[in-house]
Amino acid sequence: MTSQTPPGTERPDPELPRGVALAWGVAANPQRGPKRELSIERIVEAAIEIADAEGLAAVSMSRVAASLGFTTMSLYRYVTSKDDLILLMAERAGEVAVPDASIDRSWREGVTAWVNAIRATFREHPWLVDIPISGAPITPNSLTVVDWFLREVRDLPLSDGEKMSALLLVTSYTRATSSQERDLGAAAAGSDPADVTGENFFEALTELVTPERFPSLSPLLAGGGYIAKPGTGGFDEGDDDFEFGLERILDGIEYYVARVEAGEPPVTPAPLSPQVDLPRDPKVKDAARARREAEKALREAQKRERDAIKRALEREQQARERTERQK
Predict the structure, then answer these.
(1) Which of 51, 77, 78, 79 is nearest to 63 (CA)?
(2) Are 27 and 78 in contact (CB under 8 A)?
(3) Residue 274 has pLDDT above 80, yes or no
(4) What is 18-93's CATH number?
(5) Which of 145, 180, 308, 317 has CA atoms 20 to 30 A from the CA of 221?
(6) Cα→Cα distances 262→68, 224, 255, 268, Å
(7) Domain spanning 107-198+234-249 has what CATH number?
(8) Measured between alpha carbons, how far is 73 from 77 in angstroms, rounded to an integer?
(9) What percent of the chain has pLDDT over 90?
(10) How do residues 168-194 score in pLDDT, each as one tens digit?
(11) How far is residue 148 from each of residues 67, 135, 196, measured CA to CA in Å?
(12) pTM of the model
């Protein structure tokens, strides 16, 4: 027996921007022209091919139409604006293969797999980092990506807002490093790679970066930690820098999770008074320095307290075990 909606109470169709509705497949049918072999899918594929080859700036409605052998007006019967076309391009290019939910792994392993999948889309379609972020994800593929991340962190004792903040954190890191990798790759392709690594300028910099002017940077440069010495092959190969940063981000989340599990209150700095500019006064600087030192002392005291509690619990456990053995 099926229930029927009473007359006059039908729910209206949800209102979505045209491009988003196209992504969900719920937009009204486009006005068909005489050449029915054209479709939204073909238009998006052609636009992605142009962007992959020449960058996002090369994509225009007229360029896409010409590549397909149609007039520009033919495209507007399917995609009503370039903004909608770019949205559909991002939706298509950002599709990822979500692994099976039955895979047994830690949350860190799951988030790492998630990050690597997102990074792979940026590497395959470097122009994705050039699309401005205009709001929360609301298209099907982008929400699939969000759903996958939330699945990986579902067992963490975090609030919904904290999980979304973690998502934003790792997404921002992946996007920023992918943009940097793309830009450095383009620079290396158009010039001597040793110019990009700085290897060609090593000798000049060792003369200019003196201990007197750069007391902390100078020994790093001399030791090859800032710019590789000539003949060493430039920077270390592989993804060492990316992996280091990702692991530290995950360490930070793990530390926060441990605090939540231990019932410890979050450490949040006190907000400054709403001032546009702090006065350039030595006393203000001294007070800020004293505050930082006090905060550091508090963190150290809290750590000592946690260690003392941990040792006390261990002693109690050991005492109980000795008592049990003596019975």
Answers:
(1) 51
(2) no
(3) no
(4) 1.10.10.60
(5) 180
(6) 61, 42, 11, 17
(7) 1.10.357.10
(8) 7
(9) 48
(10) 999 999 999 999 999 888 887 777 777
(11) 36, 19, 36
(12) 0.73
The three-state DSSP-derived secondary structure of the chain is: CCCCCCCCCCCCCCCCCHHHHHHHCCCCCCCCCCCCCCCHHHHHHHHHHHHHHHCHHHCCHHHHHHHHCCCHHHHHCCCCCHHHHHHHHHHHHCCCCCCCCCCCCCHHHHHHHHHHHHHHHHHHCHHHHHCCCCCCCCCHHHHHHHHHHHHHCCCCCCCHHHHHHHHHHHHHHHHHHHHHHHHHHHHHHCCCHHHHHCHHHHHHHHHHCCCCCCCCHHHHHHCCCCCCCCCCCCCCCCCHHHHHHHHHHHHHHHHHHHHHHCCCCCCCCCCCCCCCCCCCCHHHHHHHHHHHHHHHHHHHHHHHHHHHHHHHHHHHHHHHHHHHHHC
pLDDT band at 200 (very low <50, low <70, confident <90, very high): confident
- Written as one letter, the residue type at 237 is E
Residue-wise pLDDT for 41-99, tens only, equals 999 999 999 999 999 999 999 999 999 999 999 999 999 999 999 999 999 999 999 99
Degrees (nearest 5) of the Cα angle 245, 251, 253? 110
The mean predicted confidence, pLDDT, of the chain is: 84
> Residue 40: its pLDDT value, please?
93
Report which residue type is found at 4: Q
pLDDT tens for 1-23 read 344 444 444 444 457 888 898 99
